[in-house]
Amino acid sequence: SGQQEQGSVAPSADSGIRAMIVAELNRQATALRGGDRAGFLASAEPADVPLRSELDRRFSTLQAMKVANWTETVTGRLTPGADNRWSAQVQLRYCFVVDTCTPVGVTIGTGWVVTGDRARLTAFGASPADQIGPRPWEVSELQSVIGKRVIVSATKRWASRLPGILAGAERAAAITDRFSKWTPVPTRYVVYVAGPDEWAQWYGVRQASWVAAYAMPLTDTYTEIVLNGSRVGAADSREVLQHEFTHVVTLAGVQRTYPDSWWLIEGIAEYVQNVGAPLGLYRALADGRRYVRGGAWNGSVALGEPDARASTSEANGRYAVAFLAVRRLVDRFGEQKMLDFFDAVARDGKGLEHASAAVFGQPWAAVSDDCGRYVRKIF
Prior knowledge:
Radius of gyration: 24 Å
Distance between the termini: 62 Å
Shape: elongated
Order of helices and strands: HHHEEEEHEEHEHEEHHHHHHH
Strand order of the largest sheet: 5-6-7-9-8
Number of helices: 13
């Protein structure tokens, strides 16, 4: 059944036109959920080849990702134009694989022409940057593989890597699921592999050159992952995704920014990425040693994010200090105390002094100095 729109009809909008558009959106949504390609494309003007081609691409991509619980809802007023043309904002809500998740929403612009008793699409847009758009499936033709815990999608260029990345991702998910201490585990982790064009386009953001992957929160409880295909291969995927999935589970449900907690947020992700592994296998040891011994480090473990112009080595050095600081907290106080401290600082927004006294029973200055000595001992 289709989803009905909410709100009153604007005086400038004909209620009959609105009803036609709603009916067409409901037919299109039903077709997508049912795997009916022809029905999904039927909403477009028959002669509009570019639009039908775009809808066909979206249908293929969304079906490959096993879209579920898809609805299309008119929001706000219709805007009339010349020659029986109208524009409408439409909210799309969806899940992937399972229809029991909390749907993710995005609002797009659509165009319509009314002929007789039916409205037909003339435009079906993508979400703008202020809605964290465009989303990958809105603008790229994607192929997907789906596992027990993870969906991995990529453009044709990277499709041969999908099985290997999925295997690494499933191993990573088995570890990071155990650190979902505050909210239920995601129904699926969603991973996209980006080439240079997609890296600069998806979600309306530009990442620094040293970034190998990033977590993009779309809501307080739903986050997607993007791998830089130029830097991450199948062999690296388990390690990188174990880090990124940690962000998904440790920050779910948090309604705040993290300007003073970068070191702790990245430190716990590095810790989980390497949990159970000997320190000597940590990938950034050499860069950490270079960062600390080269005089770039000021001795505080409470570091901020690397500058966008930072070299990969400097960025890795900061991550290494953050990792060792969290590892030291675990060695001294135990993993649960470290998680309690993380909860207080990164999730609840309490200051380091308050959190340290409450969780560790010691002033933060003493705890921080001990972590700093540990970092220098290692490096």
